[in-house]
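Morning!

This is the sequence you dropped in the shared folder:
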Amino acid sequence: MQSPIRWVGSKRKLVNKIIKYIPKNFNTYYELFAGSCSLLFKIEPSKAVISDTNQDLICFYKILKTNVKELIEETLKLETNEKAYYKIRAWDRNPNWPYTELKRATRFLYLNRTCFNGVWRVNSKGYFNVPFRKSENIDFKIELLKAASLKLQNVEIFNENFTFL
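The structure's back. C-alpha cells below.
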C-alpha cells in the first residue's frame, strides 16, 4: 500500500529497492523522520514507532489512527477552490490556533492534497505558505486513508526529534 499523503523527499519511488535490504524478521520498525511513511505502509510491520518534529504531520497521523471517519467527513466538507484554499491556509494566522486536533489534522490533509506538489513549507513565523495547486482533480485518497488508519493501529506516534529514543 502507498502513503495517503504527498511529501517532498518521500521514499515512495525507492521503496521497492529499499525493501531488499530489510531483514525478514525484526521486532520493531522505527521511522524517526516520518514524512509520508512510505516504507512503513509498504512493509507493514507488526510493531512500529514513528516520530517527527512537524507538529501538524504528527497530529494528522494521530487523528488518522484514532478518528479516520471524522477526519474524512470534515475534509470532504471543505471546498477545493482557490479562494477556499487561501482561507483555510490562513487558519494558522489566527491567534486562537489550533482549534482542535481534528481541525488541525483536517487542515493538514486538505492543504497536503490541494497545495503545490504536496510541499509542506512554513515561513519564519511558522505560517504555512505554499500556493494552491491549480487542478480540477483534487483527490483526498479516501480508501488509502482508511487503509492507512488500519495499518497505524500497532504504531506508536511521537512528536519528537530523532534523539528521543
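Headline: The mean pLDDT is 93.

More detail when I'm at my desk.
O.
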